[in-house]
Amino acid sequence: MGILSASCNRLTTGATGNGAHHGESKNMLNKTEQPGLVGFQVVILDTTEPSFSSEFDKYKHSILSIFSHSYRHYYGDDYLLTRIAAGESVLFLGAIDHTLVGASYVKRNLRRGGTAVYPDQYRGRGIAEALVKESLKRFPRQYTILSIEECAMLSLLEKAGFRRVLSSNEIKHIVKEEFVQLSEFTEMNGSLVFSRRSIKRAVVRPKLILLHTFDYEARF
Length: 220
What we know:
Layout: E1 28-31, E2 40-46, H1 52-70, H2 77-86, E3 90-96, E4 99-106, E5 112-117, H3 127-138, E6 143-147, H4 151-159, E7 163-164, H5 168-175, E8 182-188, E9 191-198, E10 203-212, H6 216-219
Antiparallel strand pairs: 1-2, 2-3, 3-4, 4-5, 6-10, 7-10, 8-9, 9-10
């Protein structure tokens, strides 16, 4: 499916908004092969694991730096850390030569929490794509809500197999109780666009789109 609007010609920068047995941690360091990324590794951290806090502390500063430098609207470190913890998230961290340059996380409700790459020289090299693909191994079914202007991330996710919703009923089956926060559904260039009211921040984000990897049976 094509880009929603001409605004997608102005690509946004950087940001792109299931337990251990017998005490063994599933937090791990995985080497992945990615064209053009020599020495690239993915670190997976699960917030539900007993070892999470100690492992997370090793990367905390870098994670916060990556997200704070990537999002035009960053609501602070405490806000991000609360979202990660409250969602019982799994983090997928990208490192090149042991330097953390990318971060992504998926909540246990299957919603993507965010993906970002920093510093600038590491963007456009496939790091975000590698993290999304790694997350799909852990969560084959997931969804995300993005602004229609987040063109780079929309393109990346569609390349990774995400599909755009076609009806409000489809959205309702995916987001469940969150549906009451959505409104102003309208069709735009073959996609369903809507607004979302944030209860915590008391703001309304317009012109959003939902993409997902749910199959037909899972949806209905």
